Amino acid sequence: MQDPLQLLDIPSLLSDEDRDIQATVAQYLADHVRPHVASWFEEGILPRELAQELGKLGVLGMHLEGYGCAGTSALAYGLACLELEAVDSGIRSFVSVQGSLSMYSIWKYGSEEQKQEWLPRLAAGEAIGCFGLTEPDFGSNPSGMRTRAVRDGADWVLDGTKMWITNGGLADVATVWARTEEGIRGFLVPRGTPGFSTRDIKQKLSMRASVTSELILEGVRLPESARLPLATSLRAPLTCLNEARFGIVFGAVGAARDSLQAALRYAGTRIQFDQPIAAFQLTQRKLASMTVQLSNSMLLALHLARLKEAGTLKPEQISVGKYNNVESAIAIARESRTILGANGISLEYSPLRHANNLESVLTYEGTSDIHLLSIGHALTGIASFR
Ligand code: TGC
Ligand code: FAD
Question: What does pTM read for this prediction?
Answer without folding.
Answer: 0.98
